[in-house]
Amino acid sequence: RWLFNQAVCTLYAFCGVLFGLCSLSSLTVLSAVCCLKVCYPAYGNKFSPCHAAVLLLCVWAYALLFAMAPLAKWGSYGPEPYGTACCITWKTSSREATVYILALFIFCYLLPGLLILISYSLILWTVQVSRRAVRQH
């Protein structure tokens, strides 16, 4: 069972969601930047440390937005089904929590996953086209 009080449970779940979303968002941005540099070098070569800082701030803001939503009563944090840790309360019947979980699925899982898949597919396609061009040349 969870050994601490509800406040610690909420903090634990908040940190887990925040850092998990930061991780996935960072990987998504990294794949998009790699795609830009490989597939569109005219634009990718203009990427600067300032751009990286702005993207990093966007990643944290995006993750904070979704991690703080349960603190604003859009969804909730609570013990997991086995009670040994805390996370988002998945089994809930409120409309707000259902919408939050759906938004989390779409904007924090589905879209980043698709963007990563598209980015690396474009990179592979560009490398393959370049290889053919070099062979023919």
Automatic annotation (TrEMBL):
Highest taxon listed in the record's lineage: Eukaryota
Listed GO CC annotations: membrane
Entry's transmembrane regions: 12-40, 52-72, 99-127
Protein's UniProt keywords contain Protein biosynthesis: no
GO-annotated molecular function: G protein-coupled receptor activity
Entry membrane topology: Multi-pass membrane protein
One Pfam match: 7tm_1
Full protein name: OPN5 protein
Taxonomic lineage of the native organism: Eukaryota, Metazoa, Chordata, Craniata, Vertebrata
